From TrEMBL:
Residues 58-290 form the tRNA (adenine(58)-N(1))-methyltransferase catalytic subunit TRM61 C-terminal domain. The keyword Disulfide bond does not apply. This is tRNA (adenine(58)-N(1))-methyltransferase. PANTHER family: TRNA (ADENINE(58)-N(1))-METHYLTRANSFERASE, TRNA (ADENINE(58)-N(1))-METHYLTRANSFERASE CATALYTIC SUBUNIT TRMT61A. GO terms for cellular component: nucleus; tRNA (m1A) methyltransferase complex. The keyword Nucleus applies. Signal peptide: none annotated.
Length: 318
């Protein structure tokens, strides 16, 4: 696919340096690799190497994906990581044409991922109370032509919001990332469909106890808790024999001048790999997931009796 002017692309230096850029014919970007002109990117295909103005270093131009978007967006608030985002999309049952409420928007990483999941006709309603973040994220999403029509931004504090813009039983899933989500459970419940999913992200275990009590008070069922832990590994190439082989060749060069001194072919190198932990945060937080109880209690009990739903027992700790 050929890249055109005004396209938003990912410029990839390495896994820690990824940026999202909207291309202009007279634009440029400067990073640790050098100065890169937009006109040298326009007309290329995704995956191409792009060289700097001095033709010394290069970067890759890639197509947008939810994972790369999450990495490239500015991290001005505590953000969810890629493995968190994928699990949240799964728990929210984010499928095509679903309607989902998210609060708060934050950096927009999860917003973009959810919007991709509900294409082509679904909608993500995302709430952000902080005016600066709301304005910044809304402006950034103007460049996301693929999902912008599937997102509605609200500059509102969802705790004091009465959900007057929604009908009862309209929303398929609600996701909350806020310090006191128990304050809006009662009002949010009304717009959630029967058997709709309520997912809450919380960093502290004390908050988990409180939200579980609130969900039980409002007759939510199938309550479960998950701890999000990132335990990533990396591979390091070990080549212990390379130096030894080169020294042996130097010693033999006086008797065999035809032997190449820089023969690095695989058969002459004893390669191995070592596995080690990456330096990353291990604990992100907790996810609490629950379902809205059916209004028809007889039908709800019948579903549970048939074994289609197995709500776990919630143990309360003093």
């Amino acid at each position: 696919m050929v890249i055109a002017e005004n396209d938003s692309v990912i410029l990839y230096i390495d896994e820690d340096n990824i940026s999202l850029v909207k291309l202009k014919s007279d634009g440029s970007i400067t990073n640790k690799k050098g100065i890169f002109l937009h006109k040298n990117i326009i007309g290329k295909e995704y995956g191409s190497k792009i060289y700097d103005t001095l033709s010394r270093n290069f970067i890759f131009v890639l197509k947008k994906t939810p994972e790369l978007i999450a990495t490239s967006l500015k991290k001005k608030t505590q953000t969810l990581y890629e493995h968190d985002i994928s699990f949240i999309c799964l728990l929210c049952n984010a499928l095509p044409n679903k309607k989902i409420i998210e609060a708060g928007t934050g950096t927009g990483c999860l917003t973009y991922a959810l919007a991709n999941c509900v294409l082509p006709h679904g909608v993500v309603h995302t709430f952000e109370y902080n005016e600066e973040r709301y304005t910044e994220v809304k402006k950034e999403f103007e460049d996301f032509e693929d999902v912008i029509n599937n997102i509605k931004f609200y500059h509102k504090d969802i705790i004091n919001y009465n959900f007057e813009d929604f009908k009862n039983n309209e929303i398929d899933a609600i996701f909350l990332d806020m310090p006191n989500p128990w304050l809006c459970v009662e009002k949010a419940k009304n717009v959630l469909k029967e058997r709709g999913t309520f997912v809450i992200f919380l960093p502290c275990i004390e908050q988990v106890y409180k939200i579980i009590e609130t969900l039980e008070e409002h007759n939510f069922c199938d309550i479960a808790a998950y701890e999000l832990i990132n335990n990533s590994w990396k591979f390091i190439l070990i080549n212990n024999q390379k130096k030894k082989n080169n020294l042996n060749k130097l010693e033999n060069s006086s008797t065999n001048q035809s032997a190449p001194l820089n023969d690095n072919s695989p058969q002459n190198l004893n390669m191995a790999y070592r596995l080690c932990h990456k330096e990353n945060k291990t604990h992100t937080g907790y996810l609490i997931v629950s379902k809205k109880w059916l209004d028809d209690e007889h039908q709800q009990m019948e579903i549970e009796f048939k074994g289609l739903i197995n709500p776990p027992e919630i143990h309360k700790h003093d």
